[in-house]
Write a structure and sequence with these properties.
Blueprint lengths: L1 E4 L12 E3 L2 H8 L5 E3 L2 H34 L2 E5 L6 E6 L1 H10 L9 E3 L4 E3 L1 E10 L2 E11 L1
Parallel strand pairs: 4-9
Antiparallel strand pairs: 1-2, 1-3, 5-7, 6-8, 8-9
Length: about 150
């Protein structure tokens, strides 16, 4: 069944995407929850017009997100952590601490948009993370974990 998403749904699509899902998933969950509508021909035409009008604004937002990503990549991101005698961190560094370090640079990034690459960070050193600023703008940033 073809549906039009009314909001972003992880691993399915973004708002205003037309996707095909199983009938039961659409009828029993997505449509009753208000997360999607059935993709009739008239709804598709209305969506097409809306997307055409929105494309100019979208280009501007994508440009701004690309600039922010380039600025963050160029900056040195330092995350402080409490460290024991042998260089091991008490606990681990998460995307929350990385988001706080980016906030100190002057950029407000939600923690859900930061994915740390690899295993849990339990020692000081240099690491990478995936930063997703927009559905079409994402990149890898480097950060350094230092003793607090």
């Amino acid at each position: 069944m073809e549906i039009i998403l009314k909001e972003d749904i992880g691993k399915l699509g973004h708002k205003d995407d037309i996707v095909t899902v199983k009938n039961g998933y659409a009828r029993n969950y997505l449509i009753p929850q208000g997360k999607a509508i059935a993709a009739t021909s008239s709804d598709k035409k209305m969506l097409e017009e809306t997307l055409r009008q929105r494309s100019h604004k979208e280009a501007k937002v994508t440009g701004q997100a690309s600039k922010v990503l380039a600025d963050i990549k160029a900056a040195t991101i330092k995350v402080g952590a409490k460290v024991g005698e042998n260089g091991k961190i008490f606990g681990s560094v998460t995307n929350v601490q990385v988001a706080d370090a980016i906030k100190k640079l002057g950029y407000e990034i939600e923690r859900k948009n930061i994915t740390i690459n690899g295993d849990a960070i339990k020692s000081i050193g240099n690491y990478t993370a995936e930063l997703k600023l927009h559905k079409s703008v994402s990149g890898t940033i480097e950060f350094e974990v230092l003793e607090d």
